[in-house]
Amino acid sequence: MDARQFDELKLTGSLPSPTGVGLAILQLTRDENYSMGDVTRVIQSDPALTGRILKLSNTASFAAANPVTTVAQAAMRVGARSVRNLALGFTLVSGNRSGRCEGFDYERYWSSSLAVAVMAQGLAEHCGGVSPADAFTCGLLSDIGSLALASIHSERYTQMLARASAEHASDIVLLEREAFDLDHSELACAMLADWRLPEAFSYAVGALELRELHVEGTPPADIALARVL
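The chain above was modelled as a monomer; its predicted structure follows.
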């Protein structure tokens, strides 16, 4: 999708976006010279978010003799960038557990997203070549475009889902493009880029929908992330 189309969607004010601590992190890290110490202090202001990051940092992927007990330690073990990405991902989950789209199953959406995240993390641990924390975050947000369409066009998305069910449609993307002139994968990639998440995230999400990898000229780490999704 082009920049103009995405800007118009942003102006609706209905796109899922980080709030509270997540928004503070997003604003803080728009400057490439941001301090991880500042990000750590923002994260620590949210006990629930801190707990989620510490829990993930102490999983088998990053297990060490001594468990991490602070966000600063998590940043050292998992990586500062990965902690920032995790924080954005988790705040999106907590801020968008429900919505106005009657035909959209929010509980099922987040359960599925979490399942993809955990599976991607496990594959990253097994296959290597990509940070398990980044694999988790990318998996968690891989279908964020569906949530976005349900948020922006709640009534029309409900109608589209009803049509898909009635017609036993297997390719929801075609119906989305017909109804909205874009699909959830395109929108997800634009959102991930807007949040300044790694380009590898957008590549992986796009490849997931296309079910193919364009490897020529693509960094190996991007390909590795796409493969675990």
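The CA atoms of residues 3 and 190 lie 8 Å apart.
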